[in-house]
Amino acid sequence: MTTAKVNGLSLFYEEVGEGTPLVFVHEFAGEARSWHLQVRFFARRYRTIAYNARGYPPSDVPEDPKAYSQDQAADDIRGLLDALGIRKAHICGLSMGGYATLHFGLRYPERALSLVVAGAGYGSVPGEREKFRRDVEETARRFERDGMKAVAEFYTKGPTRVQFKDKDPAGWQEFYDMFCAQSAKGHALTMRGVQMSRPSVYELEAAMERMTVPTLIMTGDEDEPCLDPGIFMKRKIPSSGLVVMPKAGHTINLEDPDAFNRAVLDFLTAVDAGRWPLRNPASVSASAILPPEPAKPQPMRQGAPSR
What is the longest distance spanned by two Cα atoms in the chain? Predict the structure, then answer.
């Protein structure tokens, strides 16, 4: 078992392949092995690294609730890069991992070659934030009271997971079994410390408008909680592109692995070739036909010297 010392904790990771580093960051219901279909594909071209977040054995499960937060999740990506001697890497995350990837890009843009932010945004709708927090707290209590298997009976069959179960029952069963084998304590602590407390995607508007790290946003068209936030991120991050996968739910890397891998590969190839530009400002207009109006000159402030 391979572990790295990251921010005072031992994090389990698996590394396959050689070349430019590509780090995979798993979702709440996943772990490093959730990326096995991506590792097999991308290890032919990249140095792939997948790790278990804090709270997910065999990584450490700290008991202090303060050890879990959105900022800490982003810092753990940076800490893993430091531990492995990696200056810059492509970072690919799904759901909880997509949130961590986005925050990593906002906090440490100099460490990111690119970002893949997939299935991120759940709990962001302003009018539904309190309901989201209540649902998270109720689920955390069920982890503590009933354990992983009992929660798995509804969590892995939710409205954004049934697509996976319908398409690939064997793949879904692997996903279910991995989920059941994880730590109820770690999941409860993660839910309260990360999901319940993290900012809405919409609260990150100003920071996203300044970000220039090449970014690919991905979502399933039936992943309702993440669809609108995905479009919002596309509109606000000037270096972003958006892929919406048809007839797809939340677990898109496992549900439709070929389409997911090809979209990510095309993106990484463009970034590595220096062919992923910022959005052309001429593409942003109030009209579908007319070009944007030129910016109006600002009036001279009273008392300002003339030139």
Answer: 74
